[in-house]
TrEMBL record:
This is ATP-binding protein. It holds the Pfam family DUF87. Keywords: ATP-binding, Nucleotide-binding. It comes from Sphingomonas qomolangmaensis. One of its GO terms (molecular function) is ATP binding. Residues 24-214 form the AAA+ ATPase domain. It comes from the Bacteria.
Length: 481
């Protein structure tokens, strides 16, 4: 059963939603300058998905602790507990499927990074029987996955960056769907940002951030200025869980709010003659309004662990739809993608997003291929081979195991002609399969494959070319070079 999370409306006033099951499989990156509505977007997503999935929020500023009042999230003030206790909290969160807000408010940057690394490590290392699906939201992700070194110790930076990389690169198999939000794409480690397949890009003004955002959205660089003109609360969205093409979304209202509110102008107090005396009073006389009351003592760790054990979410929704032949769906989708006139001109990233959306529409909710496997399969599909992982093509694939992914297409086009006893493909045909209009580039690809002794080319006295795959004993019929 598909679950859509209502996020607001698009430019045409139509409802805009996020497919929750697809989001769990493909991850999300949110970017926007301060004041763009980034936290509002996260709050809308969390509120609307709270009844359906476990949520774990790493909150540097304590903005999301108010979710506990309405949705029952357990708030853990990280500064009050040791690293060992944080690890135990993380394990209990996965075991009991409790939605949690880990508030890092009050910790300095290095302490926040240490705590986040320990907590994410605890989530990641949970036993296999506790790998329930969960949204893991990390606000201000550039703090925990910085693009370069900062003022924190290198050991701390590596630990935090490693935990964030695990979340985004390897978390999906453990049920962890990373949702990372950042004010500056340029300050966020590229290997962390690159693992997201869904993007919501809000207003930003620096050229370097606009260009990176436009690149992730598949927009031309001359279109990047549109990101600067976005209104507060409006985001450009793209991804298999949202839309196949960039679409502008206006985020809807929320039911909870942050403890801190945006500053508003208020009237100044009336000047008084004794203001100087008030400002210069002795500490004993001014202590009543200068010294804040002492904070309440932290809850014992055992109490928090007991609370986590009492929180439970509804059981996951059972999918009673008939089983889907995933291999057949992948072959059909690849056939449809390469048949499109502009497929050769589109980047592998865009084709991969298209592939995920098409699979989702045919009932395959989680992507059956990762980006690397997709690159090989789409290269093979351009050569007319839609099931290169089957037994039929296994010998040909083994013979070309050392070839780069993008050269698999021309090789398989030749192998297919050799197996079928067809004429050798022309340079024009090989260039089309390779995704280029340059005949010289196609010839260089064939030359590279020959250098690896995977192919042997012969030209007879009449100038007709044939090619042989020595490892298989397959040879094409002669054809014009």
């Amino acid at each position: 059963m598909a679950i859509s999370v209502d996020m607001g409306v698009d430019d045409a006033g139509r409802p805009a939603s996020i497919d929750l099951e697809e989001l769990l499989a493909t991850r999300l990156l949110v970017q926007g300058n301060s004041g763009s509505g980034k936290s509002h977007l996260l709050r809308r997503l969390l509120e609307r998905s709270a009844p359906h999935v476990q949520q774990v929020i790493i909150d540097p500023e304590g903005d999301f602790v108010t979710l506990s009042e309405r949705y029952g999230h357990v708030v853990v003030e990280a500064g009050e507990y040791s690293a060992a206790e944080i690890l135990r909290f993380a394990g209990r969160c996965r075991e009991h499927r409790a939605s949690v807000v880990l508030s890092l408010e009050g910790l300095e940057a290095e302490g926040q990074m240490r705590t986040a690394a320990a907590f994410l490590g605890g989530l990641f290392d949970a036993p296999r029987e506790h790998w329930y699906p969960a949204l893991v939201v990390v606000d201000e992700a550039q703090v925990f996955a910085p693009a370069g070194g900062g003022e924190v110790a290198e050991e701390v930076r590596r630990a935090s960056l490693g935990a964030m990389t695990n979340l985004m690169c390897r978390g999906r198999k453990r049920g962890l769907a990373g949702i990372i939000a950042t004010q500056r794409l340029a300050k966020l480690a590229k290997n962390v940002a690159a693992e997201a397949s869904n993007f919501l890009m809000g207003r930003t003004f620096l050229d370097i951030d606009m260009l990176r955002a436009a690149d992730l959205l598949g927009m031309e660089r001359k279109q990047a200025d549109a990101i600067r003109d976005l209104a507060r609360g409006s985001f450009l969205a793209l991804g298999p869980a949202i839309s196949r093409r960039p679409v502008s979304i206006r985020i809807g209202s929320v039911e909870t709010g942050a403890r801190a509110v945006a500053p508003k102008l208020t009237p100044l107090p009336t000047p008084s003659a004794d203001m100087k005396q008030t400002l210069l009073e002795e500490p004993e006389q001014a202590s009543l309004f200068l010294v804040p009351p002492p904070p309440p003592p932290p809850a014992p760790a055992e109490s928090v662990l007991e609370t986590l054990g009492q929180v439970d979410l509804p059981p996951p929704v059972e999918d009673d739809s008939p089983p889907v032949d995933v291999a057949a769906v992948v072959a059909d989708v690849l056939r449809a993608i390469v048949a499109e006139p502009d497929a050769a001109a589109r980047s592998a990233t865009m084709l991969f997003q298209d592939f995920q959306v098409r699979c989702r529409m045919q009932g395959v909710h989680r992507s059956p291929l990762d980006a690397s496997a997709f690159a090989r399969r789409v290269a093979a599909a351009r050569a007319g081979v839609y099931d290169c992982e089957g037994e039929e093509w296994a010998p040909a694939i083994r013979a070309a195991r050392d070839l780069p992914d993008d050269m698999l297409g021309p090789y398989l086009a030749i192998a297919r002609a050799a197996r079928d006893g067809a004429p050798c493909p022309s340079d024009e045909e090989l260039a089309r399969v390779y995704g280029t209009t340059s005949l010289g580039r196609a010839r260089r690809v064939i030359g590279y494959i020959e250098e690896r002794q995977i192919l042997v080319t012969r030209v007879d006295l009449s100038g007709k070319r044939s090619m042989t795959i020595p490892a298989l004993g397959w040879t094409t019929l002669p054809a014009a070079a």
